[in-house]
Amino acid sequence: MIAVIEGKKTVADFMALGEGPPFAELIDGEIIMAPSPFRHHQQVTLNLALALRNHLDATDLAGKVYIAPFDIHLGEHDVLCPDLCYFSPDRLHLLSERGAEGAPDLAIEVLSPSTARRDRKVKRGIYAGHGVKEFWLVSPDVETIEVFDFGKQLDEPVAVLENGTHPVIATALLPGLDIPLARVFRP
């Protein structure tokens, strides 16, 4: 049984929960728990993870890709769990036994009806404020990927890619990566 802790929660409070399930995030001092994502969300996440991992293997690029649940510790009151994240060789030192002690280069959130608002606003702001270079918001329902390049602008995506209109998604963070959007959204 977990004791209820009054007031703004810290990383220590969050870590006292122990390993999941259930899984949770610490966002601005609030512990947020959610049920597992729906099947289509998981399929899109898997499709992206396989494409990223296969690209790293095929090109001998260094770096690491992780899928949720994987905790990213971003301060005393924020522990986020992106659906996918990529750490370049320059950020591998941030990896720890409990996840990561700092921001990945790329964070990807696959939107669910229950998390979309938080992913779009709150989590995007936390990622931007803690040094994530690029952030993707993937919408399985409308088959789009919004790409945020925080080095260029914080509040608006630099691209919105739509399956059927845009053939691939690419990023300068992973040279040579071209993931067909049809593969991302394949059931």
Task: Outline the structure in words.
- This protein is an alpha+beta fold and 187 residues long.
- It has one domain: Alpha-Beta Complex (tt1808, chain A).
- Helices cover 24% and strands 26% of the residues.
- It has helices at 11-15, 39-59, 116-129, 181-184, and strands spanning 24-27, 30-33, 64-67, 72-73, 79-80, 84-87, 95-96, 99-100, 106-110, 134-139, 144-149, 159-162, 168-169, 179-180.
- The strands form five sheets. The chain has a six-stranded mixed β-sheet with strand order 3-6-9-10-11-12, sandwiched between helices.
Secondary-structure map with pairings?
Blueprint: H1 11-15, E1 24-27, E2 30-33, H2 39-59, E3 64-67, E4 72-73, E5 79-80, E6 84-87, E7 95-96, E8 99-100, E9 106-110, H3 116-129, E10 134-139, E11 144-149, E12 159-162, E13 168-169, E14 179-180, H4 181-184
Parallel strand pairs: 9-10
Antiparallel strand pairs: 1-2, 3-6, 4-5, 6-9, 7-8, 10-11, 11-12, 13-14
